[in-house]
């Protein structure tokens, strides 16, 4: 297996990297949608976060057998173990059965037990699920992924037999909007949205080229140069996760967020909630237990930009517009 390009070595992509880090610290933000043209490093950046993910406690045997009359009882293990947070990638051509899993009907009828054959959602439990080219995925499959990500459960029904299991994961989707737009009702269900940008100038492009050549020549030697940075960033993430429950966002800041969403005529309150959660995660990442206006400013564009119009191609423009409304609201207090 080819070594992963270090997360701390990736040049640019500040908004995408920040959004990934915040979703690692606070999985309840609601996931991340990455929309950008081809060749901007979307997949490379997402896959690089895997090495920074924290360890988790999980059930050793989360999918035991059940009697048929225990129709909707959820699966629970009896012992726990510590393991790395999973990063699961949805393969091309995956079907609904591959995603959700299936039930062993033969054993159900012959032995009277329901046995789950875990799918991708089960493998992604308590981790990240990455879907590349999500805008090209069939709508019914996107629905399945978003429903499971929002509820934290996956229900499988077949021939009158039903079973459900926990499926709590952070959904990360990426795509090129030039190929096909993601329907607005789907985009709105992602907590954050970011656009990876290409190199700003020739100097940045030259640095990127040099990095790629060095990594191709000797990936292990290249990675050694980033061991310390990777370790420090992972330690910062772990500290932020432990600090997060103590972080406070005051009533004035909450009102500002709601006023901005009202001025932007956003439907529902998903955007308000995402901004509040992401702001707290940003404060925790910066080492504070009190949210400041700069925390809200850092995330509000990414949390609201994809909720503005039916056309979501100009992510950076929309994000800046949201920030302008935010500071206008602050100055009017």
From TrEMBL:
Pathway: Porphyrin-containing compound metabolism; chlorophyll biosynthesis. Residues 8-177 form the Magnesium chelatase ChlI-like catalytic domain. It is an enzyme of class 6 (ligase). One of its GO terms (biological process) is chlorophyll biosynthetic process. Keywords: ATP-binding, Nucleotide-binding, Plastid. CDD domains: AAA. Pfam families: AAA_lid_2, Mg_chelatase. It comes from the Eukaryota. Its EC number is 6.6.1.1. GO terms for molecular function: ATP binding; magnesium chelatase activity. Residues 257-311 form the ChlI/MoxR AAA lid domain. InterPro entries: CHLI-like, ChlI/MoxR_AAA_lid, Mg_chelatse_chII-like_cat_dom, P-loop_NTPase. Belongs to the Mg-chelatase subunits D/I family. This is magnesium chelatase.
């Amino acid at each position: 297996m080819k070594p992963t390009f270090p997360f701390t070595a990736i040049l640019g992509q500040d908004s995408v990297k920040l959004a990934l880090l915040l979703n690692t610290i606070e999985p309840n933000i609601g996931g991340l949608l990455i929309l950008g043209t081809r060749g901007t490093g979307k997949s490379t950046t997402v896959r690089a976060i895997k090495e920074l993910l924290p360890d988790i406690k999980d059930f050793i045997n989360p999918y035991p057998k059940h009697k048929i009359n225990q129709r909707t009882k959820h699966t629970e293990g009896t012992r726990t173990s510590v393991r790395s947070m999973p990063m699961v990638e949805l393969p091309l051509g995956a079907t609904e059965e591959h995603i959700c899993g299936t039930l062993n009907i033969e054993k159900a009828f012959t032995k009277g037990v329901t046995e789950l054959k875990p799918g991708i959602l089960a493998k992604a439990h308590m981790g990240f699920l990455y879907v590349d080219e999500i805008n090209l995925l069939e709508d019914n499959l996107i629905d399945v992924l978003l429903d499971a990500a929002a509820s934290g459960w996956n229900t499988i029904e077949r021939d009158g037999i039903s079973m459900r299991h926990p499926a709590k994961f952070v959904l990360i989707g990426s795509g090129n909007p030039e190929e096909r737009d993601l329907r607005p009702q789907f985009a709105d269900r992602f907590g954050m949205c970011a656009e990876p940008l290409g190199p700003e100038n020739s100097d940045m492009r030259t640095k990127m080229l040099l990095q790629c050549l060095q990594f191709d020549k000797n990936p292990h030697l290249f990675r050694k140069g980033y061991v310390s940075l990777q370790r420090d960033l992972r330690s910062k993430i772990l500290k932020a996760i432990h600090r997060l429950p103590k972080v406070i966002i005051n009533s004035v800041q909450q009102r500002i967020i709601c006023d901005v969403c009202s001025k932007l005529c956003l439907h529902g309150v998903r955007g308000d909630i995402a901004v509040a959660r992401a702001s707290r995660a940003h404060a925790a990442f910066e080492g504070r237990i009190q949210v400041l206006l700069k925390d809200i400013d850092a995330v509000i564009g990414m949390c609201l930009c994809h909720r503005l119009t039916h056309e979501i191609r100009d992510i950076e423009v929309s994000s800046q517009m949201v920030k302008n409304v935010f500071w206008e609201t602050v100055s009017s207090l």
